[in-house]
Amino acid sequence: MTAFPVADEAATRGELLGLVRGERGALTVVLGLMVAATAAGLAGPWLLGRIIDTAGSPGARVDLLAAAVAGFAVAQLLLVRASRLAAHRLGERATARLREQFLDRVLALPSRVVERAGTGDLVTRSTVDVGTVGVALRDAAPDLVLAAAEALLLFTAVFVLVDPLLGVAGLVTLPVVVLGIRWYRKRGRNAYLAHGEATSSVAESMSATAEGARTVGALGLAEARVADSDATIDTVYHARMRTLALRLRVFLSVDLSHRVAHVLVLAAGGVAAFHGRLTVGEVAAAALYAWQLADPLSRIAQWLEQVEGSAAALSRIAGVATPPDPTTDTTPADDRVTLSGVRFAYIPGKDVLHGIDLEVRPGERLAIVGPSGAGKSTVGRLIAGLERPRAGRVLLGGVPVADLDPATRNALVVLVSQEHHIFRGTLRDNLAIAAPDADDHTLTAALTTIGWPTTPDLDTPLAALPPAHAQLIAMTRVALRDPHTVVLDEATSVMDPHSARTAERALSAVLTGRTVIAIAHRLHTADAADRVAVVDRGRIAELGTPAELLAAGGSYAALWRSWHGGD
Ligand SMILES: Nc1ncnc2c1ncn2[C@@H]1O[C@H](COP(=O)(O)OP(=O)(O)OP(=O)(O)O)[C@@H](O)[C@H]1O
């Protein structure tokens, strides 16, 4: 199962209409050029028929007719090229808009949704699926319209320019084509959705292996990861085979129908010519039209796959949407953090917090300690407004923190974890994320305060940075954002001692004067706190100053003793 759902057919149609809306003028130009190109193409066979019938008669201007045939052929070529160019531009514009819309949609997702979804599915939808829809908009859709118009006009030409009887002969097999296409479309959606889901699983498996490379190496999981990837690749292979099998059948029905129709037109034309109802030239023109049908029909069959695949891709793109979290306009009254009766579950029915009550005073340093899996990080995420409690309230200055709109919330409370993402770009770009309006002077001053080891050069391009530098950038971002509360998910535990010291200094510079809620994995973080909360199995087991808790001789005292032995 991939992480995000797929939109139903009605929502997908709405998405498509949204993409082409506003392009009515360009669409009219494209369609006009296509119809003109097709009409120019139809004149050729009719004129050739005239040449055949009049070539022997005295005074016939075969040369003029031949010149007209050539003229129409050139005109058709130019019109086809012009219509394709216009259609490509239209398709590219729509694809660019789709990309932008998708990015906006991903950015609007609550971070908890993105985190839980994993990256593979989102990346596949934003690259493979958007690309598939792009090809359909740019190439398949215009050519499909062109091919359908050509096929329609070819039949009309046989009816109008040659003989209705031959037209009927050419249409005898049409129901087989229509039924074949309907059969294909009925099965296509599910087959292509399954293919898209399988492709996402491959990306999911690969990205999990890459992201967890250290764990894979440390625990010798290479074989298991390879087996996992093999399984997902196998699923893609079978899903692809299914779509190819469907396509093969629709190709067969279209090709066979066309061949049979062509033979029927020739046979009926032969009989009509034999009885003198039609001239040889008329039969030749009809046969040429019927022969010409092969091209649009095979293009329709070929593009059908693209259209079906991209309809499924568009459903997957439209599926990446979550109703936005409700927000409030109420401004927090003060900087107080209050949790009352907080219960929380990642998986419905499985609470990991069972009624947390806690009040953090402005400017206080609170350390949260406890065994692994007790719920410490979850408390931190709730305070930072990244999760909503299932029951109870998490308030910032009297307002539910998760209801604050993200920009307001991020200016008041920031969660600093061990993962600091450095984006491609310069040092300036990476800091501007936190303070888009800050000038160079402000950025440089913030870096200096934080203890940037050299004179900061904001134009330095950043790629992979050692953890200590990434940490300094993260701290500078916090300083620039200037929140009153920082939730610290033990930010220096993965570093070597020297880097950790640099990071510690940066941390203490940035934390001065703020409320700090530190999820502590080390003794001195807890020791230096004003108060310590011990979380155990989703409850606050102890709460007090470090000295009080030590004196009480409870679980903090036991933890302190074990830390003291090993810190
Ligand atoms: N995204 C998630 N989906 C499902 N369960 C989760 C998720 N994140 C955490 N949990 C579960 O919630 C419980 C509390 O996790 P949490 O990370 O808050 O504990 P912790 O005390 O911070 O642990 P640690 O010290 O190991 O980081 C654990 O049982 C954990 O397995």
TrEMBL record:
Keyword entries, A-Z: ATP-binding, Membrane, Nucleotide-binding, Transmembrane, Transmembrane helix
Membrane spanning residue stretches: 26-48, 60-80, 168-184
Transport among keywords: no
Source species, domain of life: Bacteria
Subcellular location: Cell membrane
A molecular function GO annotation: ATP binding
Domain ABC transmembrane type-1, chain residue ranges per copy: 29-309
Residues annotated as domain ABC transporter: 337-562
A Pfam family this chain is assigned to: ABC_membrane
Membrane topology term: Multi-pass membrane protein
PROSITE patterns: ABC_TM1F, ABC_TRANSPORTER_2
Listed name of the protein: ABC transporter ATP-binding protein
Organism: Actinokineospora guangxiensis
